[in-house]
Structure formats: C-alpha cells, structure tokens
Amino acid sequence: MAVFYHTLIMAGIYIILATSLNLVAGYTGLFSFCQGAFYAIGAYAGALLALKLGFPFWAEVLGAALIAGIGGVLIGFPTLRVRGGYLALATYGFAVIIFTILNNWESLTRGPLGIRGIPHVKLFGLIFNSLWSFTLLVAFFVLMTILCLRRLTQSPFGKVLLAIREDETAALAIGKNIARFKVVSFSIGAFFAGIAGTLYAHYVRFIDPTAFVAQESFLIYSMVILGGRGSMLGSVLAALILVFLPEALRFVGLPSFYSTQLKQMIYGALIVLIVIYRPQGIMGKVQRF
Amino acid sequence: MILLETKNLTKDFGGLRAVNKVSLQVEQGTITSLIGPNGAGKTTIFNLLTGFLKPSMGEVRFKGHPVTGSPPNRICQLGMARTFQLVRVFPMLTVLDNLMLGFRKVKGESVLGGLLQTRGVKAEEERSLHRALELIELVGLKQYKDQYAVNLGFGQQKLVEIARALATNPDLVLLDEPMAGLSGEMKANMISLISHLKSQGKTVFFIEHNMPVVMGVSEQVFVITHGEQIASGPPSEIVNNEQVIEAYLGREQ
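Structure tokens for the assembled complex are given below, as produced in the milestone run.
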C-alpha cells in the first residue's frame, strides 16, 4: 500500500510538471527543455524558505512558485530570438546551469550534501505526515493546476498561445505582442513547476541536486509528447503511465536493478514508437513537431 | 487626407538595393494598387510598411505619425492590417477561432482575464463571437465556420485571412496579391469584397498582377521596377505611360 501511495504522489507531482509544460510546449509551441530546472528551483526555494525563514506552508508554496516563475521570465527573455532546435538547446543549457549552481553554491544549497530536515507540511493546524494525507494534499494541487490551466487554455489568452504555435508571423500581423505572450507562457509553466518542486521537497524531506539532473526535463517533455501536444488530459495520462510503469515492472517480480535499467529502455522505446506511429500523441490532434 | 505616406523609403539587403527611395501616398478612403514585374520589390515595400522589415533609409508615416521601424504588432494596433502573398492562416484552429483572434484589446487575453473569466470577459466573448459571425458571413464562409482552416481550399483560406485582418478593425488594409490562385467565381467575389471595403470607409492598398482588376478597381496606381518608382497616377494614365509599358513588355526595337 505504501508503494501505491508513493507512486500516486510522484504521479501527481509529474502531472503538475507535464500539464504546465504542455502550456509552454504544447500550446505555445516552445521547445522548452528546462521544466526540470524550474522544478528544482521550486524545491530548493521551498525548502530554504521553510528552513531559513520559517515561512508557513502556504506562503512558502506561493513564494517558491513565484521565484520559479521569475526564473521563467529570466529564461524567457533571452530565448525570444531563438526558435525550434536552438531554443531546445538554449533551455537545456539553462537546465544544466541550474543543476551546476545547486551543486556548487554550497553556502546556500549545501551542494552535493543536499538539504535535510525539511519539515512536514502544516496547514490549518493539520500535519500532513502520513502518506495518505500527503496524497490528498498533492491531489488538491493537481486539481488546482489542471483547473487553472484548463481555464487559461480555453480563454482568449490560450487561443493566442495556439496562434503563436501555429504561425508566429501571422500572430504578429494581427497585432499580438508575441514576445510578451511567450515570456508569460514560460513563467506560468515555471510557476506550476515551482509548486511541484515544493511538494516534492516536503514529501521526501531531503533534497540534493541528483534529484534534479538535467535529464529530468527530457522525462517531463516526453510526457507532453506521449500524451499529445495541446491535450491536458493526454499529459495527465502520460504522466500516470510513465510513473506507474516502473512500479508495475517491480510487481512483475523483476529485481529493482533490472527494473530501473528496463525502465529507461521502455521510456526510450515508447517515445520512438509514439513519434513514428502516433506523432500527435495519445490524445493530441497536432501532427507536426 | 493622406493616410499612409513614405518618403525616400529604401531597403538594402547586403549589397542589393531592393527598394530605392520610394515615396508614395495613399489617400484615405481610396483603393490604391502597387504593381510591377516579379522581383520589383513590392512585397518588400509591404514588409517595410507593416514593420516586418526595418527600412535602411527613409520614413513611413501612418495617420500623420511616424511609424518607421515600429514592430508589426504595434503597427497593426494603429490600424494597418495586412494579408500575405502565401496565405497565412492558423491551420489547426477553426475558421471562427482564426477570426476571433483578430480582435484587439481583448480582456480575456490577459492571464487574469483568462483565469477569472469574469462576467465582463464572458460578455466580451459573446460580442466577439457575434462580430466574428458577421465577418464570416461577409466573406461567405458561414458553412465552414467550425472547420479547421487547414481543411479549406486556398481561395477560402485567403478569405479567412482577409476576414481576420478585418477583425482587427483596420483603417487601412494591405492585400498582397488577393487575386493570385483564385478561380473565376472566387475572383468576382474578391473584387466585390474589395469594393465593399471601400464602401465601408476602409482604405485598401493592394499588390496585384491581374491588370484588368488593377485597372478596374483602383483609383491610384503606383508602379515599381527594380525597387524604383517609375510612375504613379490614375489607371487611365498608367496604361498609356511609356515607361510602364517598357517595364512590362520591353522596349520596341
């Protein structure tokens, strides 16, 4: 049962990461490979706000999400001039930089030693120290995230993001300030990744840079591709599949050593198969990359 | 009143002077056309006017204000909308969504507006929908309103693009070869659409190779070859202009 709750919690965290990246990559069409970096910023910011400044949980989540969101603005502006594969490389570079900073800014992050003793979440006099209660907490944030993102994507704001994905030049020609929309899209994606990071920090209660290697961004991006660009439901399903899959392998009776190796191979094979046979993803309707 | 004016508009691409000291004026409420052989620099001039290219020299004034070097979105917001030679619709959006994107100053386009969807935002969307349906009716695409733009024919996509440009509520509409690639019936529709725009008080400035159309609907014609303006005037003068005939047909030996 503990494994089940653990998997649900991680799936919830990845649902937040994947759906919010979908706003950036799926709706706005920006090849962002640094969602893992915003996730890391959120985790570290949350942990430090709680430990060093004693923020209550609600203020801490908000603070961490805002800091990650500012990170989104910071990466959004300089990358306005690059598109496609160049944008992918630039954002990946940002993810590597964040990892390196976390690993080396020892006075703040304690470097490879990591930050331990992150407190349990306390909210309205309740302590979320059991697996099931934390699952509920994550579920609440998952619902809030999806609700916000759905509202945004179905609003005129979301339509402009789609227009930018479909044809930037045409969007400019009808008077849309696409630079502003791109940066805002980046920062919203980062904001929710910040929330996911804070949840993760409070769940495991010990964070170190190895949890946020740059490859993490690829995993999240592959959830968007697998689920379908521009489909929030698709991202939810893909996050569930990719998080539950390795656990399912363990239940089949494979030793964990093999299951982790196998996990990577299955991730890779899934992406290759999807890209060849169903490029629009599980739920998506956009065929082009 | 002069709505749009350029003075010595010049654009160099490396060593190539694509547009050389072009000075033209578009009167408000008229239909004006820009003609010239292929590669003369017509589309480049449109790109300079709408901010997609920055002039190397010279000036663009719109409604009396200098807009030289302003970004395209800014220029559109000032009331100058354009279409493209190779049609640019949003392929995976419906015809209706394509049009609704054209509207300006939409509250729902802010993050808060989109997130909260207050009564004001909802009411605004209702109004946009209503106006979009009117525009769809105007260009005769009512039965396609819920189709993805990608599924429409070339001519229909052109109409979507024009309707979307009109949604920005422009005073001046720049059309880059509106007749190209259209069937006979569609051509007639396009001509009546252009005349209709004038009757609505819009100013139309268009690039075109179809001479009967140019001479039939325009009040003023500008002729460009090799980036230089060689003639301007009403169609009756242009058809008899020696230089224009030479540019199009070559010199008599």
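The first helix of chain B runs from residue 42 to 49. The two ends of chain B are 43 Å apart (CA to CA). Further analysis is deferred to the final report.
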